[in-house]
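Q: Convert this sequence to C-alpha coordinates.
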Amino acid sequence: MAQQVSAFDAQFLNFETPTNLAHIAALTILDPSDRPGGAPAREELIELLRRRLHLAPPLRRRLVEVPFGLDHPYWAEDREVDFDYHVRELALPPPGDGHKLAEQVARLHGRRLDRGRPLWELYLIHGLAEGRMAIYTKVHHAAVDGVTGAEVLAALMDFGPQVSDTPPPGDAAEPQRAPDVLEMVVRGVARVLDNPLALLRFVAEAVPRLDEVPFVAQLPGVGRVSRFVRGIGPDTDVNLPELPRMVVPRTPFSGPISEHRRFAFGELPLDEVKRIKNAFGVTVNDVVMAMCATALRRWLVSRDELPRQPLVAGIPVSTRGQAFNGSAANEVMLTMTTLPTNVADPGERLRSVNRSMRLVKERLAAAPAAWLLEFSQAMPAALSALAARSAFRIASRRAPAMNLMISNVPGPQSPLYVSGARVVALHPMSVITDVSGGVNITVFSYDGRLDFGIVADREMVPDVWNLIDYLRDSLAEYGAMAGPAEPPAPEPRRRGKKAAGKATEEVTEQATGKSTEKAAGKSTGKPPGKSTGKSTEKTERPPKAGRSTRAGRPAG
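A:
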Protein backbone atom coordinates (compact mmCIF):
# COMPACT_ATOMS: atom_id res chain seq x y z
CA MET A 1 0.00 0.00 0.00
CA ALA A 2 1.14 3.56 -0.65
CA GLN A 3 2.94 5.45 2.08
CA GLN A 4 0.89 8.11 3.85
CA VAL A 5 2.22 11.61 4.31
CA SER A 6 3.11 11.95 7.98
CA ALA A 7 1.41 14.55 10.14
CA PHE A 8 4.70 16.42 10.39
CA ASP A 9 5.35 16.41 6.64
CA ALA A 10 1.75 17.46 5.99
CA GLN A 11 2.48 20.78 7.68
CA PHE A 12 4.72 21.70 4.73
CA LEU A 13 1.65 21.25 2.54
CA ASN A 14 -0.73 22.97 4.94
CA PHE A 15 1.10 26.26 5.42
CA GLU A 16 1.81 26.73 1.72
CA THR A 17 0.20 29.81 0.15
CA PRO A 18 1.01 31.85 -2.96
CA THR A 19 3.75 33.60 -0.91
CA ASN A 20 4.80 30.93 1.59
CA LEU A 21 6.31 28.24 -0.62
CA ALA A 22 7.62 24.99 0.79
CA HIS A 23 10.16 23.60 -1.65
CA ILE A 24 13.93 23.33 -1.28
CA ALA A 25 16.38 23.42 -4.17
CA ALA A 26 19.99 23.19 -5.31
CA LEU A 27 21.94 25.14 -7.90
CA THR A 28 24.59 22.85 -9.37
CA ILE A 29 27.26 24.51 -11.53
CA LEU A 30 29.02 22.29 -14.06
CA ASP A 31 32.25 22.61 -16.00
CA PRO A 32 31.97 20.47 -19.18
CA SER A 33 35.32 21.62 -20.64
CA ASP A 34 36.94 18.17 -20.22
CA ARG A 35 33.87 16.23 -21.31
CA PRO A 36 34.08 14.58 -24.72
CA GLY A 37 31.38 16.05 -26.91
CA GLY A 38 31.00 19.22 -24.86
CA ALA A 39 28.10 20.11 -22.59
CA PRO A 40 25.49 17.41 -21.89
CA ALA A 41 22.17 17.96 -23.64
CA ARG A 42 18.73 17.88 -22.07
CA GLU A 43 18.01 14.53 -23.69
CA GLU A 44 21.08 13.02 -22.02
CA LEU A 45 19.93 14.22 -18.59
CA ILE A 46 16.48 12.77 -19.19
CA GLU A 47 17.97 9.42 -20.17
CA LEU A 48 20.21 9.48 -17.07
CA LEU A 49 17.20 10.21 -14.86
CA ARG A 50 15.19 7.47 -16.53
CA ARG A 51 17.89 4.88 -15.80
CA ARG A 52 18.34 6.00 -12.20
CA LEU A 53 14.80 6.80 -11.16
CA HIS A 54 14.80 3.79 -8.81
CA LEU A 55 17.54 5.54 -6.77
CA ALA A 56 15.32 8.58 -6.10
CA PRO A 57 11.79 7.44 -5.09
CA PRO A 58 10.53 10.99 -4.34
CA LEU A 59 10.83 11.81 -8.05
CA ARG A 60 8.04 9.41 -8.97
CA ARG A 61 5.66 10.05 -6.06
CA ARG A 62 2.60 12.27 -6.39
CA LEU A 63 0.02 13.32 -3.84
CA VAL A 64 -3.41 11.71 -3.58
CA GLU A 65 -5.77 13.78 -1.44
CA VAL A 66 -8.27 12.16 0.96
CA PRO A 67 -11.91 13.19 0.34
CA PHE A 68 -13.15 16.07 2.51
CA GLY A 69 -9.66 16.44 3.98
CA LEU A 70 -10.46 13.77 6.59
CA ASP A 71 -6.88 12.55 6.69
CA HIS A 72 -3.42 13.37 5.47
CA PRO A 73 -2.70 12.64 1.78
CA TYR A 74 -0.96 9.54 0.43
CA TRP A 75 2.07 9.19 -1.81
CA ALA A 76 1.23 7.18 -4.92
CA GLU A 77 4.04 6.02 -7.20
CA ASP A 78 3.73 6.61 -10.93
CA ARG A 79 4.98 3.86 -13.21
CA GLU A 80 5.95 6.44 -15.83
CA VAL A 81 7.21 9.97 -15.19
CA ASP A 82 6.56 12.77 -17.67
CA PHE A 83 10.17 13.89 -18.05
CA ASP A 84 9.20 16.22 -20.86
CA TYR A 85 7.27 18.24 -18.25
CA HIS A 86 9.68 17.94 -15.31
CA VAL A 87 12.98 18.55 -17.14
CA ARG A 88 13.21 21.97 -18.78
CA GLU A 89 15.84 24.04 -20.52
CA LEU A 90 16.70 27.74 -20.78
CA ALA A 91 19.61 30.07 -21.53
CA LEU A 92 20.84 33.19 -19.76
CA PRO A 93 21.07 36.49 -21.65
CA PRO A 94 24.64 37.67 -22.06
CA PRO A 95 26.70 38.23 -20.04
CA GLY A 96 25.97 34.99 -18.22
CA ASP A 97 27.56 36.05 -14.94
CA GLY A 98 26.67 35.04 -11.41
CA HIS A 99 24.20 37.86 -10.94
CA LYS A 100 22.24 36.96 -14.08
CA LEU A 101 22.18 33.33 -12.99
CA ALA A 102 20.97 34.27 -9.49
CA GLU A 103 18.19 36.47 -10.90
CA GLN A 104 16.90 33.67 -13.11
CA VAL A 105 17.08 31.07 -10.35
CA ALA A 106 15.31 33.42 -7.91
CA ARG A 107 12.39 33.68 -10.36
CA LEU A 108 12.21 29.89 -10.64
CA HIS A 109 12.38 29.53 -6.86
CA GLY A 110 9.38 31.81 -6.43
CA ARG A 111 7.07 29.54 -8.45
CA ARG A 112 4.83 26.97 -6.78
CA LEU A 113 5.05 23.30 -7.73
CA ASP A 114 2.06 21.61 -9.40
CA ARG A 115 0.50 19.28 -6.83
CA GLY A 116 -1.14 17.19 -9.54
CA ARG A 117 2.28 15.82 -10.52
CA PRO A 118 5.34 14.50 -8.70
CA LEU A 119 6.59 17.48 -6.71
CA TRP A 120 9.87 18.32 -8.45
CA GLU A 121 11.31 20.24 -11.41
CA LEU A 122 14.74 20.39 -13.02
CA TYR A 123 16.09 23.19 -15.24
CA LEU A 124 19.18 22.90 -17.43
CA ILE A 125 20.60 26.42 -17.74
CA HIS A 126 22.99 27.38 -20.56
CA GLY A 127 24.93 30.55 -21.26
CA LEU A 128 27.12 30.83 -18.17
CA ALA A 129 30.53 32.47 -18.43
CA GLU A 130 33.59 30.37 -19.26
CA GLY A 131 31.45 27.80 -21.06
CA ARG A 132 29.88 26.51 -17.86
CA MET A 133 26.29 25.42 -17.33
CA ALA A 134 23.99 24.97 -14.35
CA ILE A 135 21.23 22.70 -13.14
CA TYR A 136 18.53 24.08 -10.86
CA THR A 137 16.57 21.32 -9.10
CA LYS A 138 13.69 21.86 -6.67
CA VAL A 139 11.71 19.32 -4.66
CA HIS A 140 8.86 19.90 -2.22
CA HIS A 141 9.85 19.85 1.46
CA ALA A 142 7.00 17.44 2.20
CA ALA A 143 8.88 14.83 0.16
CA VAL A 144 12.48 15.45 1.28
CA ASP A 145 14.54 17.16 3.95
CA GLY A 146 17.99 18.65 3.43
CA VAL A 147 19.80 15.33 3.70
CA THR A 148 17.39 13.24 1.61
CA GLY A 149 17.26 16.11 -0.87
CA ALA A 150 21.01 15.76 -1.33
CA GLU A 151 20.55 12.03 -1.77
CA VAL A 152 17.97 12.61 -4.50
CA LEU A 153 20.38 14.95 -6.25
CA ALA A 154 23.15 12.37 -5.91
CA ALA A 155 21.12 10.01 -8.09
CA LEU A 156 22.26 12.15 -11.02
CA MET A 157 25.91 12.13 -10.04
CA ASP A 158 29.02 9.98 -10.24
CA PHE A 159 32.36 10.09 -8.45
CA GLY A 160 34.22 10.12 -11.76
CA PRO A 161 33.77 11.37 -15.32
CA GLN A 162 32.61 7.93 -16.46
CA VAL A 163 28.84 7.49 -16.18
CA SER A 164 28.25 4.38 -14.10
CA ASP A 165 25.61 1.85 -15.01
CA THR A 166 23.07 1.45 -12.20
CA PRO A 167 20.29 -0.77 -13.50
CA PRO A 168 17.20 -1.24 -11.31
CA PRO A 169 17.03 -4.45 -9.26
CA GLY A 170 15.64 -7.44 -11.12
CA ASP A 171 12.92 -8.01 -8.53
CA ALA A 172 11.67 -4.42 -8.50
CA ALA A 173 8.37 -4.08 -6.70
CA GLU A 174 5.23 -2.85 -8.36
CA PRO A 175 4.51 0.88 -7.94
CA GLN A 176 2.61 1.57 -4.71
CA ARG A 177 -0.94 2.67 -5.31
CA ALA A 178 -3.01 4.84 -2.98
CA PRO A 179 -6.01 3.21 -1.22
CA ASP A 180 -9.35 3.53 -2.93
CA VAL A 181 -11.71 6.32 -1.92
CA LEU A 182 -13.77 4.21 0.52
CA GLU A 183 -10.71 2.92 2.35
CA MET A 184 -9.26 6.43 2.66
CA VAL A 185 -12.53 7.71 4.15
CA VAL A 186 -12.73 4.84 6.64
CA ARG A 187 -9.14 5.39 7.72
CA GLY A 188 -9.76 9.11 8.06
CA VAL A 189 -12.78 8.59 10.30
CA ALA A 190 -10.80 6.16 12.47
CA ARG A 191 -8.04 8.73 12.88
CA VAL A 192 -10.57 11.36 13.98
CA LEU A 193 -11.98 8.97 16.59
CA ASP A 194 -8.45 8.22 17.79
CA ASN A 195 -7.67 11.92 18.17
CA PRO A 196 -8.50 12.17 21.91
CA LEU A 197 -5.86 9.53 22.57
CA ALA A 198 -3.40 11.45 20.40
CA LEU A 199 -4.15 14.57 22.43
CA LEU A 200 -3.40 12.73 25.68
CA ARG A 201 -0.11 11.48 24.24
CA PHE A 202 0.73 15.03 23.19
CA VAL A 203 0.04 16.41 26.69
CA ALA A 204 2.17 13.73 28.32
CA GLU A 205 5.12 14.00 25.95
CA ALA A 206 5.11 17.53 24.57
CA VAL A 207 4.07 19.85 27.41
CA PRO A 208 7.33 19.35 29.37
CA ARG A 209 9.19 20.65 26.31
CA LEU A 210 6.91 23.39 25.02
CA ASP A 211 9.74 25.87 25.57
CA GLU A 212 11.42 24.31 22.50
CA VAL A 213 8.49 24.76 20.10
CA PRO A 214 8.86 27.75 17.74
CA PHE A 215 6.23 30.47 18.29
CA VAL A 216 4.77 28.62 21.31
CA ALA A 217 8.00 29.24 23.24
CA GLN A 218 7.53 33.01 22.82
CA LEU A 219 4.20 33.04 24.66
CA PRO A 220 4.27 34.35 28.26
CA GLY A 221 4.32 31.65 30.93
CA VAL A 222 5.23 28.75 28.61
CA GLY A 223 8.68 28.36 30.18
CA ARG A 224 7.22 28.20 33.70
CA VAL A 225 4.62 25.62 32.65
CA SER A 226 7.27 23.43 31.02
CA ARG A 227 9.54 23.63 34.08
CA PHE A 228 6.64 22.79 36.41
CA VAL A 229 5.58 19.74 34.39
CA ARG A 230 9.19 18.55 34.17
CA GLY A 231 9.45 18.94 37.93
CA ILE A 232 6.56 16.55 38.57
CA GLY A 233 7.47 14.23 35.70
CA PRO A 234 10.20 11.65 35.13
CA ASP A 235 13.70 12.36 36.40
CA THR A 236 15.04 12.43 32.85
CA ASP A 237 12.98 15.55 32.16
CA VAL A 238 14.05 17.30 35.37
CA ASN A 239 17.68 17.30 34.21
CA LEU A 240 17.00 19.05 30.92
CA PRO A 241 19.21 22.16 30.58
CA GLU A 242 17.15 25.32 30.83
CA LEU A 243 16.73 27.33 27.63
CA PRO A 244 16.76 31.11 27.89
CA ARG A 245 13.57 32.90 26.86
CA MET A 246 14.32 34.23 23.40
CA VAL A 247 12.75 37.56 22.52
CA VAL A 248 12.51 37.85 18.74
CA PRO A 249 13.35 41.46 17.76
CA ARG A 250 11.83 43.14 14.73
CA THR A 251 14.13 43.51 11.72
CA PRO A 252 13.70 44.73 8.13
CA PHE A 253 13.14 41.07 7.13
CA SER A 254 10.38 40.38 9.69
CA GLY A 255 6.72 40.09 8.77
CA PRO A 256 4.69 38.84 5.81
CA ILE A 257 6.81 38.08 2.75
CA SER A 258 5.98 38.63 -0.90
CA GLU A 259 5.81 36.22 -3.84
CA HIS A 260 9.20 37.34 -5.13
CA ARG A 261 12.67 36.13 -4.18
CA ARG A 262 16.26 37.23 -4.39
CA PHE A 263 19.20 34.83 -4.35
CA ALA A 264 22.95 35.18 -3.85
CA PHE A 265 25.64 32.53 -3.67
CA GLY A 266 29.32 32.19 -2.90
CA GLU A 267 32.06 29.82 -1.81
CA LEU A 268 34.53 29.82 1.08
CA PRO A 269 37.48 27.47 1.72
CA LEU A 270 36.66 24.74 4.22
CA ASP A 271 40.31 24.34 5.25
CA GLU A 272 40.42 27.96 6.44
CA VAL A 273 37.22 27.47 8.45
CA LYS A 274 38.74 24.33 10.02
CA ARG A 275 41.93 26.23 10.85
CA ILE A 276 39.89 28.88 12.64
CA LYS A 277 37.83 26.31 14.55
CA ASN A 278 41.03 24.57 15.70
CA ALA A 279 42.58 27.86 16.82
CA PHE A 280 39.52 28.85 18.87
CA GLY A 281 38.63 25.35 20.10
CA VAL A 282 35.12 25.41 18.62
CA THR A 283 33.32 23.54 15.82
CA VAL A 284 33.01 24.20 12.11
CA ASN A 285 29.33 24.94 12.62
CA ASP A 286 30.19 27.46 15.35
CA VAL A 287 32.45 29.32 12.91
CA VAL A 288 29.75 29.29 10.25
CA MET A 289 27.15 30.61 12.70
CA ALA A 290 29.51 33.35 13.91
CA MET A 291 30.23 34.39 10.32
CA CYS A 292 26.49 34.59 9.66
CA ALA A 293 26.04 36.69 12.81
CA THR A 294 28.80 39.04 11.62
CA ALA A 295 27.35 39.37 8.13
CA LEU A 296 23.85 40.08 9.46
CA ARG A 297 25.19 42.56 12.04
CA ARG A 298 27.01 44.56 9.38
CA TRP A 299 23.99 44.49 7.06
CA LEU A 300 21.72 45.74 9.85
CA VAL A 301 24.23 48.43 10.90
CA SER A 302 24.47 49.66 7.30
CA ARG A 303 20.71 50.31 7.43
CA ASP A 304 20.76 51.67 11.00
CA GLU A 305 18.43 48.80 12.01
CA LEU A 306 20.56 46.78 14.47
CA PRO A 307 18.37 45.56 17.39
CA ARG A 308 19.66 45.72 20.95
CA GLN A 309 18.70 42.06 21.44
CA PRO A 310 20.36 39.14 19.66
CA LEU A 311 18.56 37.70 16.66
CA VAL A 312 16.85 34.34 17.00
CA ALA A 313 17.77 31.75 14.39
CA GLY A 314 15.97 28.54 13.53
CA ILE A 315 18.39 25.62 13.20
CA PRO A 316 17.34 22.32 11.57
CA VAL A 317 18.56 19.32 13.59
CA SER A 318 18.79 15.81 12.20
CA THR A 319 16.65 13.17 13.94
CA ARG A 320 17.75 10.25 11.80
CA GLY A 321 17.17 6.99 13.59
CA GLN A 322 14.66 8.58 16.00
CA ALA A 323 11.55 8.56 13.82
CA PHE A 324 8.49 7.13 15.52
CA ASN A 325 7.43 5.26 12.40
CA GLY A 326 8.62 4.67 8.88
CA SER A 327 6.36 7.22 7.25
CA ALA A 328 8.28 10.42 7.87
CA ALA A 329 10.14 11.60 4.80
CA ASN A 330 11.62 14.43 6.85
CA GLU A 331 13.95 13.29 9.61
CA VAL A 332 14.90 16.76 10.69
CA MET A 333 13.42 19.00 13.34
CA LEU A 334 13.71 22.68 14.10
CA THR A 335 15.35 24.09 17.19
CA MET A 336 16.19 27.69 18.00
CA THR A 337 19.22 29.55 19.27
CA THR A 338 20.28 33.14 19.77
CA LEU A 339 22.55 34.74 17.18
CA PRO A 340 24.77 37.35 18.90
CA THR A 341 24.44 40.17 16.39
CA ASN A 342 24.36 42.55 19.36
CA VAL A 343 27.94 41.66 20.38
CA ALA A 344 30.50 44.07 18.92
CA ASP A 345 33.67 42.07 19.57
CA PRO A 346 34.12 39.32 16.96
CA GLY A 347 36.00 37.00 19.32
CA GLU A 348 33.30 37.22 21.97
CA ARG A 349 30.71 36.78 19.22
CA LEU A 350 32.23 33.41 18.29
CA ARG A 351 32.48 32.33 21.93
CA SER A 352 28.84 33.31 22.48
CA VAL A 353 27.80 31.17 19.52
CA ASN A 354 29.78 28.27 20.94
CA ARG A 355 28.02 28.56 24.32
CA SER A 356 24.57 28.75 22.73
CA MET A 357 25.13 25.79 20.43
CA ARG A 358 26.60 23.73 23.27
CA LEU A 359 23.43 24.34 25.28
CA VAL A 360 21.29 23.18 22.35
CA LYS A 361 23.39 20.02 22.01
CA GLU A 362 23.17 19.28 25.73
CA ARG A 363 19.42 19.67 25.61
CA LEU A 364 19.10 17.30 22.64
CA ALA A 365 21.51 14.79 24.22
CA ALA A 366 19.48 14.73 27.44
CA ALA A 367 16.23 14.11 25.59
CA PRO A 368 16.29 13.48 21.82
CA ALA A 369 14.00 15.59 19.67
CA ALA A 370 12.10 12.72 18.03
CA TRP A 371 9.02 13.50 20.13
CA LEU A 372 8.51 16.59 17.98
CA LEU A 373 7.64 14.34 15.07
CA GLU A 374 4.39 13.53 16.91
CA PHE A 375 3.60 17.16 17.64
CA SER A 376 1.17 17.46 14.72
CA GLN A 377 -0.71 14.26 15.63
CA ALA A 378 -2.63 16.08 18.35
CA MET A 379 -4.86 17.86 15.83
CA PRO A 380 -7.33 16.25 13.41
CA ALA A 381 -6.07 16.27 9.85
CA ALA A 382 -9.21 18.08 8.73
CA LEU A 383 -8.24 21.11 10.86
CA SER A 384 -4.49 21.04 10.27
CA ALA A 385 -4.41 23.21 7.16
CA LEU A 386 -6.69 25.87 8.67
CA ALA A 387 -4.73 25.88 11.93
CA ALA A 388 -1.39 26.12 10.14
CA ARG A 389 -2.42 29.09 8.02
CA SER A 390 -4.06 30.84 10.97
CA ALA A 391 -0.96 30.37 13.11
CA PHE A 392 1.18 31.78 10.31
CA ARG A 393 -0.97 34.88 10.02
CA ILE A 394 -0.95 35.52 13.77
CA ALA A 395 2.78 34.87 14.18
CA SER A 396 3.88 37.02 11.26
CA ARG A 397 1.92 40.05 12.45
CA ARG A 398 2.30 39.82 16.23
CA ALA A 399 5.02 37.50 17.49
CA PRO A 400 7.29 35.93 14.84
CA ALA A 401 8.87 32.68 15.94
CA MET A 402 12.36 33.60 14.70
CA ASN A 403 14.26 36.11 12.60
CA LEU A 404 15.76 33.76 10.03
CA MET A 405 16.80 30.19 9.28
CA ILE A 406 20.40 28.95 9.10
CA SER A 407 21.20 25.42 7.97
CA ASN A 408 24.50 23.59 7.49
CA VAL A 409 24.30 20.37 5.44
CA PRO A 410 27.36 18.08 5.13
CA GLY A 411 28.31 16.88 1.67
CA PRO A 412 30.98 14.80 -0.10
CA GLN A 413 34.58 16.02 -0.05
CA SER A 414 35.54 14.56 -3.42
CA PRO A 415 34.60 15.81 -6.91
CA LEU A 416 31.26 14.79 -8.41
CA TYR A 417 30.23 14.59 -12.05
CA VAL A 418 26.92 14.85 -13.92
CA SER A 419 26.94 12.98 -17.22
CA GLY A 420 30.73 13.44 -17.39
CA ALA A 421 30.73 17.19 -16.55
CA ARG A 422 32.47 18.11 -13.31
CA VAL A 423 30.44 19.71 -10.52
CA VAL A 424 32.40 22.82 -9.53
CA ALA A 425 29.86 24.15 -7.00
CA LEU A 426 26.62 23.07 -5.35
CA HIS A 427 24.69 25.91 -3.75
CA PRO A 428 21.64 25.04 -1.62
CA MET A 429 18.39 27.02 -1.58
CA SER A 430 15.72 26.75 1.08
CA VAL A 431 12.49 28.20 2.44
CA ILE A 432 11.48 31.66 3.65
CA THR A 433 8.08 32.21 5.27
CA ASP A 434 6.08 34.80 7.18
CA VAL A 435 7.01 33.06 10.43
CA SER A 436 10.66 32.09 9.82
CA GLY A 437 11.65 35.46 8.36
CA GLY A 438 12.59 36.85 4.98
CA VAL A 439 16.16 35.46 4.96
CA ASN A 440 17.42 31.90 4.78
CA ILE A 441 21.16 31.06 4.81
CA THR A 442 21.99 27.48 3.86
CA VAL A 443 25.49 26.00 3.61
CA PHE A 444 26.57 22.81 1.84
CA SER A 445 30.10 21.47 2.27
CA TYR A 446 31.50 20.06 -0.96
CA ASP A 447 34.98 19.17 -2.22
CA GLY A 448 36.94 21.32 0.23
CA ARG A 449 34.60 24.33 0.19
CA LEU A 450 31.53 25.71 1.90
CA ASP A 451 28.96 26.57 -0.77
CA PHE A 452 26.57 29.25 0.52
CA GLY A 453 23.08 29.93 -0.80
CA ILE A 454 21.09 32.90 0.56
CA VAL A 455 17.38 33.18 -0.29
CA ALA A 456 15.64 36.43 0.66
CA ASP A 457 12.43 38.31 0.06
CA ARG A 458 12.93 40.64 -2.89
CA GLU A 459 11.57 43.75 -1.16
CA MET A 460 12.93 43.13 2.32
CA VAL A 461 16.54 42.46 1.28
CA PRO A 462 17.21 44.16 -2.08
CA ASP A 463 21.01 44.03 -1.58
CA VAL A 464 21.34 40.34 -0.75
CA TRP A 465 24.77 40.12 -2.45
CA ASN A 466 26.22 42.32 0.31
CA LEU A 467 25.67 39.44 2.73
CA ILE A 468 27.99 37.26 0.64
CA ASP A 469 30.67 39.98 0.78
CA TYR A 470 30.23 40.31 4.54
CA LEU A 471 30.64 36.55 4.96
CA ARG A 472 33.98 36.73 3.13
CA ASP A 473 35.03 39.70 5.25
CA SER A 474 34.15 37.80 8.43
CA LEU A 475 36.19 34.78 7.37
CA ALA A 476 39.19 37.04 6.72
CA GLU A 477 38.71 38.72 10.10
CA TYR A 478 38.56 35.44 12.03
CA GLY A 479 41.46 34.10 9.98
CA ALA A 480 43.60 37.07 11.05
CA MET A 481 42.60 36.56 14.69
CA ALA A 482 43.57 32.88 14.47
CA GLY A 483 47.10 33.85 13.41
CA PRO A 484 48.98 33.16 10.21
CA ALA A 485 48.37 29.89 8.46
CA GLU A 486 51.03 27.21 8.68
CA PRO A 487 53.26 27.21 5.58
CA PRO A 488 53.05 24.08 3.42
CA ALA A 489 55.58 21.40 4.33
CA PRO A 490 58.60 21.32 1.98
CA GLU A 491 58.68 18.48 -0.49
CA PRO A 492 61.15 15.74 0.47
CA ARG A 493 64.44 15.89 -1.43
CA ARG A 494 64.70 13.27 -4.11
CA ARG A 495 67.48 10.76 -3.60
CA GLY A 496 69.10 8.12 -5.70
CA LYS A 497 70.47 8.03 -9.18
CA LYS A 498 69.16 10.12 -12.00
CA ALA A 499 66.51 8.31 -13.95
CA ALA A 500 66.23 8.63 -17.68
CA GLY A 501 63.36 10.84 -18.81
CA LYS A 502 63.26 13.01 -15.65
CA ALA A 503 62.56 16.70 -16.03
CA THR A 504 65.60 19.01 -16.18
CA GLU A 505 64.70 20.84 -12.97
CA GLU A 506 64.55 17.54 -11.07
CA VAL A 507 67.99 16.58 -12.34
CA THR A 508 69.36 19.99 -11.32
CA GLU A 509 67.85 19.69 -7.85
CA GLN A 510 69.39 16.27 -7.35
CA ALA A 511 72.76 17.40 -8.65
CA THR A 512 73.05 20.56 -6.53
CA GLY A 513 71.22 19.29 -3.45
CA LYS A 514 69.37 22.61 -3.21
CA SER A 515 65.73 22.87 -2.31
CA THR A 516 63.40 25.42 -3.82
CA GLU A 517 61.49 25.66 -0.56
CA LYS A 518 62.19 28.70 1.68
CA ALA A 519 62.35 28.42 5.43
CA ALA A 520 59.13 29.37 7.12
CA GLY A 521 59.26 32.51 9.23
CA LYS A 522 58.16 32.62 12.84
CA SER A 523 54.61 33.64 13.62
CA THR A 524 54.05 36.95 15.35
CA GLY A 525 50.25 36.61 15.57
CA LYS A 526 48.17 36.97 18.70
CA PRO A 527 47.20 33.85 20.67
CA PRO A 528 44.14 32.32 19.03
CA GLY A 529 40.83 32.93 20.66
CA LYS A 530 41.83 36.22 22.30
CA SER A 531 40.55 39.57 21.18
CA THR A 532 43.08 42.20 20.13
CA GLY A 533 40.86 44.91 21.55
CA LYS A 534 40.84 46.71 18.20
CA SER A 535 37.82 45.32 16.49
CA THR A 536 36.70 46.75 13.19
CA GLU A 537 33.18 46.62 14.66
CA LYS A 538 33.82 49.96 16.37
CA THR A 539 33.32 51.72 13.08
CA GLU A 540 31.24 48.89 11.59
CA ARG A 541 33.46 48.83 8.50
CA PRO A 542 34.50 45.46 7.12
CA PRO A 543 38.25 44.76 7.20
CA LYS A 544 40.06 45.32 3.93
CA ALA A 545 41.57 41.87 3.95
CA GLY A 546 39.53 39.38 1.99
CA ARG A 547 37.17 41.84 0.27
CA SER A 548 36.11 40.91 -3.19
CA THR A 549 37.32 43.06 -6.07
CA ARG A 550 33.75 43.85 -7.10
CA ALA A 551 30.77 44.08 -4.80
CA GLY A 552 28.53 41.06 -5.05
CA ARG A 553 30.87 39.01 -7.18
CA PRO A 554 30.23 35.31 -6.54
CA ALA A 555 33.21 33.21 -5.56
CA GLY A 556 34.67 31.03 -8.24
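The chain is about 30% helix and 20% strand.
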